[in-house]
């Protein structure tokens, strides 16, 4: 969080464990358990990305495998949010689609407000909710597109977005303030909308699939495995060109020689070695290969969760409950980190967050706490605390406007 984020798009509010009268509702319930399971895993990964070790995942080094959550958890959340938006708007036209669009606008406003509140806490975690809000608003024209058109938008955003973002960064560096909040939201922050719109568009396209079908889940697994080849491709390109990256995509060695330093950059913020960064796929690097690989990772995980959710819904339903309140758990864990940091001396905060056993202990505490909270909450309620407010908000605002 510097990895972060959460799916907050719509989902049916009917309890997944309610009795079903036909095969189709049973399949739909299993689908929702599968999607909520994917969200729950993203929540667990997010916890670790925020309080565990910050290291790059290396397939051939088992000691780094916990680094798989860094960067991928946040991308997974945005894709799942897009998937939720796709489910909300699929098959709707005319007034029905217009109503859904207004609901999404209101949800974006709510997320923007909640994100602003969390930013005031000043924790070390980058808050993604403002990016969510803007992505929701930017996605409004996409809901009337066909699945093929959505795929084309996602592909175009994945390929062009990194270059558009680099151009925006150059313009902001030359004529503006890269540290301004709008600049961070657009291009210079950890979650620039010019890049992350690719994940949301991909999620909306996934939401148009027949997610109740096992064949669809299997095709998602195959497509995800193919797209994840972007990771080894990046490794091969780096080896061939003599390019070495740090853990977040900055170029250390370009073409076998040290990369240009800050003093070598021009007035636009460019340096010759920046061209080499597009060969990598490190977390939060925002390159084409990272975006493609992250989408592949999300497809693989979602497809797997759909299959296991359909195979054993009762077994995975308890864990899936965490996914049903991912927004609430996200905000609660930010508040918990805020409280914890204010109980530890400033000189020890970095050690507390980075030391292996302390980070692992915090992660386990967050995970167990979230599981217990979700279990108790859903005994008498059908939506998480913030999720319930967000779903009721559009209707209340609409009624007030009449």
Radius of gyration equals: 21 Å
- Oligomeric state of the chains present here: single chain
Low-confidence stretches: 1-5, 10-25
Percentage beta strand = under 5%
Distance between the termini: 41 Å
Shape: globular
Count of β-strands: 3
Largest sheet report: 3 strands, antiparallel
Q: Return the structural class.
A: mainly alpha
Mean pLDDT: 85
Report the order of strands and helices: HHHHHHHHHEEEHHHHHH
Helix content: 55-70%
Number of helices: 15
Strand arrangement across the biggest beta sheet: 1-2-3
Keywords:
402 residues; mainly alpha; three-stranded antiparallel beta sheet; 3 strands; 2% strand; disordered N terminus
How would you briefly describe this protein structure?
This is DUF418 domain-containing protein. Keywords: Membrane, Transmembrane, Transmembrane helix. This protein has 402 residues and is mostly helical.
How is this fold's topology laid out?
Blueprint: H1 23-51, H2 72-89, H3 94-119, H4 129-138, H5 147-175, H6 181-188, H7 193-207, H8 214-227, H9 230-241, E1 244-245, E2 251-254, E3 257-258, H10 288-311, H11 313-323, H12 326-341, H13 346-354, H14 356-377, H15 385-400
Helix pairs in contact: 1-2, 1-10, 1-11, 1-12, 1-14, 2-7, 2-10, 3-4, 3-15, 4-7, 5-6, 5-7, 8-10, 9-10, 10-11, 11-14
Transmembrane segments: 29-49, 69-88, 104-121, 127-143, 150-173, 193-211, 223-245, 291-315, 327-345, 357-378
Domain Heparan-alpha-glucosaminide N-acetyltransferase catalytic: 31-233
Domain DUF418: 284-393
